[in-house]
Amino acid sequence: MELRHLRYYLEVCRTLSFSRAAENLHIAQPPLSRQIQQLESHLNVTLITRTRPLALTEAGVYLYQQIEPLFNRLEEIAQQTRQIAHASRARLIIGFAPSMLYGELPSLIRRLHNENDIAVEMQEMVTLRQIEALKKGRIDVGFGRIYLHDSEIEQLTIREEPLVAALPGNPALNGNPISLAELSLQPFILYPSQPRPGYADHTLRLFEQHRLCVNPSQQANDMQTAIALVAAGIGVALVPESARQINHEGVRYVAVKEPHVTSPIILSYRKHEANPLVGRCRNLLRPASCQ
User: Distance between alpha carbon 198 and the CA centroid of its chain, in Å?
Assistant: First the structure.
């Protein structure tokens, strides 16, 4: 079975006429009939009843329903490929963890737009999914918070972002710094619940490094949900300092007493990447100590 068999069959299904299908496909009717017979022989089923008008069998309807969206998708891919080939602007696909929207990422995108004629496409995904997407060529760079060893991927730490405690209360009250020990005694909201390893594991390790243990009373899918749960009085959470931009009624952000309670901001990209935009992105973000 070849792709042309399915393409010919799809046209017959759409027209319910061998003659009209042959005309649309710019081939003679007898070769078209033979192609459909070959498809039926390969599948060992009858797809079309040769009545007037033509009718699809139950198996024929099923095959039609399955292949029509596939061919629609193929046409989309072909169109996008042509657009990329003839585009006047370079294209950079960025995968990002949701919390990146409150840090360096918006500034980087503005700089790329201002300094270069670049089309930037954004795809939200956690770090674990970014690694998979990089290896499959679906994104060019990824911004996340988790170190994941992979022989095909490079990871560059942009900086270590301090974490702050999100506590229930009046946002106008800054409050005194709180210790990890004090936080460990509170109902704790852990996020994201999946996938693992992820930021949740990083949070747990911070407590373990201080010989503390937290008992998560609630898990959330993302940081925004965790902060909303804090506002509802469900518990407390550790969030990146840039999350202070989320002005949620009933939530106050308080510094943590212990030093080095941070979360890395990590740029991930393929090893030996030839795309010059990836190098440009890396240079714009490289820590000052590395420049």
Answer: 14
pLDDT in tens, 233-288: 999 999 999 999 888 888 999 999 999 999 999 999 999 887 888 888 888 877 54
Q: Which CATH number fits domain 161-262: 3.40.190.10, 2.30.38.10, 3.30.428.70, 3.30.2010.30?
A: 3.40.190.10
Please report the pLDDT score of residue 257 as a whole number. Answer: 94
pLDDT in tens, 179-223: 999 999 999 999 887 777 788 899 999 999 999 998 888 998 889
What are the domain boundaries of the chain?
3-86, 90-157+264-290, 161-262
Cα–Cα distance, 80 to 61 (Å, whole number): 29
Whether the ω angle into residue 192 lies within 30 degrees of 0, i.e. cis, is yes
153/267 Cα distance (integer angstroms): 10
